[in-house]
Amino acid sequence: MKSLNFEKSWIQAWDALNEKRENIGVYREMLDEGEPVADEINAEIKALTDGIDELEFRNMLQHEDDRRDALITINPGAGGTESQDWANMLYRMYSRWADRSGFSVSTVEYQHGDVAGIKSASIEVKGEFAYGYLKAENGVHRLVRISPFDSNARRHTSFCSVFIYPIIDDEIEIDLNPADIELQRFHSSGAGGQNVNKVETGVRLIWTGKLSDGSEERVVAECQQERSQLQNREKAMQLLKSRIYTLEKEIKDAQRSALEGTKKANEWGSQIRSYVMHPYNMVKDHRTNHETSNVDAVMEGELDDFIKAFLMSESN
């Protein structure tokens, strides 16, 4: 059914472009007859161009996992409050991007920072090509700014790691031995500290075992978004299997022995993208060299240009 819907979406997109092409032809005939339709023609041409760009964008997403929903996990690096606040800024940025892109967004896990920000957070993004787009964000993100937490107003550098996982469904079987999974329960609370539950509805699952290459792994997944412990346990199990699936996929792709092996140290020089707010404004992706001086727009979720630049570099 998903494959059929995918094919239909391509046909519908192509039909929409063809309709705009025909509209442009009609408007040109009207223009030749002296009708004041120049604005209409320009609008249709722009819509056609944008539609073609969108199809080219989607054509870059050919991997079997690209159409899946995605899990974004954000972890601050060393630096205490500074890094935890930066992690919260990224959490907000990705939530804004997903919302403005028409995806369904929900917070699966959220741990408050000691003073401000977050110690970790996981966001589920649901919609067609969610993982295909977001995989461009996998890596270490670096922030340079005047610290709002430093009474001497000194410049600080902070790091956060962002990991993107495809969320698998029942079509893919991942067999896990229940004896290898530890279940932990905790009181769940939402972002901002609201809705703290008096009962332990939050669930954390810890799997310890061997991957197909024989390497020992410890994989953790937790969920606190649902109202009941049973629902959170089911969601945590899905996320646990998704993370193990990703590890196995990386092994089979021979890109690295396991996904954990790609986790660069959260320190100077290992970042994929820098966000500079002082002494100048700039966001620069170090893989593609795409950059912009409009830092505020990026932090409000305008990431498409960065994502497209990355996908184009990968396709080339």
Reconstruct the topology from this structure:
Layout (H helix, E strand, L loop, with lengths): L1 H31 L5 H22 L9 E8 L4 H20 L3 E9 L5 E9 L3 H5 L4 E8 L8 E13 L13 E6 L15 E9 L5 E8 L5 H24 L20 E4 L5 E4 L5 E2 L2 H5 L4 H12 L1
Helix pairs in contact: 1-2
Key descriptive features of the protein:
single chain, 316 residues, alpha+beta, Alpha-Beta Plaits, 3 domains, eight-stranded mixed β-sheet, three-stranded antiparallel β-sheet, 7 helices, 38% helix, globular
Give the overall average pLDDT.
87
Number of domains: 3
Distance between the termini: 31 Å
Largest sheet descriptor: 8 strands, mixed
Overall geometry: globular
- Derived from helix and strand composition plus strand pairing, the structural class reads alpha+beta
Q: The CATH topology of the largest domain, please?
A: Alpha-Beta Plaits
What series of H and E elements makes up the topology? HHEHEEHEEEEEHEEEHH
Specify the number of helices: 7
The helix fraction, in percent, is: 25-40%
Number of strands: 11
Beta-strand content: 25-35%
Task: Return the CATH architecture of the largest domain.
Answer: 2-Layer Sandwich
The stretches of 5 or more residues where confidence is low (pLDDT under 50) are 254-260
Sheet with the most strands: spatial strand order: 2-3-1-5-4-9-10-11
Task: Provide the gyration radius in Å.
Answer: 22 Å
What is the C-level CATH assignment of the largest domain?
A: Alpha Beta
Protein name: Peptide chain release factor 2
GO molecular function, one term: translation release factor activity, codon specific
Function: Peptide chain release factor 2 directs the termination of translation in response to the peptide chain termination codons UGA and UAA.
Modified residues (N5-methylglutamine): 194
